Amino acid sequence: MEKIDLRSDTVTHPTEKMRQLMATAPVGDDVYGDDETVIRLEKTAAELLGKEAAMFVPSGVFGNQVSVLTHTKRAQEIILGEKCHIIEHEAGSVALISNVQTRTIDDSTGEMDPREVERIIRKAEDIHFPHTGLICVETAHSTGNVASLENLQEIRAIAKKHGIPVHLDGARLFNAATYLGVEGKDIAEHADSISLCLSKGLCAPVGSVVAGTKAFIHEARKNRKILGGGMRQAGILAAAGLEALEMRKRLKEDHDNALYFGEELDKIPGIRVHKDAIKINMIFFDIEKENFDDEKFVSHLKDRDILINGQDGGLYRFVTHYYITRERMDAVLEILREYFR
């Protein structure tokens, strides 16, 4: 990769080892259930997440949407955070695909308040109310926050009490596990289904995995077919996914790099880094200069082969990943020092 791409951890390319594995992967027709590489990926993912079964899907959005569709009935209501990925970045899919109503609550800290979750559950059988069909949680959150195990446990207990399933958007589950110092299954045990992304920070080019009970995955496979997600010789992609699962073991390096990057960025006059918010591989900062030209700033870096997103709500976000080495961070820092000088 020649460019230094700080926009997200979705921009990573497959490693050379991944490319070799993809080129030699045994394949079959996955819709018929005979692609042995896909089978191995699903079995491995299920074991890592402590679930009975798993299913390979094309993307994280697909994983979330097929899970919501499988858990719910039309005209039900789902509870989820107002800043979560399903609400912010999935183009209203739940309304179009599952025909459910969303009820959102504050999750700006990466967690929903369990008391608030329980308060808004539709408890009475009243013809005026939609029935609460699902609670969705997310960790690691796209804000860079990580929910505590205690928070997830409380929400799961409330859900069980009311007979409501819990879906976990675990796109960056292993980042959350790395931050908490636990295994992925220690987080996943607090949800009935999980969607895990293989291309966010793990270098796979395509794909996510949905995990849950055997009965849930059986029904989800039918819904995957309905949504057009049944793939044929998908073992070529699953081979990269298997290696991506191994790459979870190096995520602490990305987290450590984010801390280093954040500390050095904060030393540059004009940049204020939210250092307390650096929990995973994301650095958030704002520019303390009047009439600062966002477009000019982004273009200046792009001209020097550094890709960033413009500010969102006044905040900039840099994301570290496999291809953001200390050497590359130092190169960016030098250009920024010169720019703000």
UniProtKB/TrEMBL annotation:
Residues the record lists as N6-(pyridoxal phosphate)lysine modifications: 200
Cofactor: pyridoxal 5'-phosphate
Keywords from the named record: Lyase, Pyridoxal phosphate
The keyword Lyase is assigned to this record: yes
Pfam families registered for this protein in UniProt: Beta_elim_lyase (PF01212)
Family (UniProt): Belongs to the threonine aldolase family.
Record's protein name: Low-specificity L-threonine aldolase
Gene: ltaE
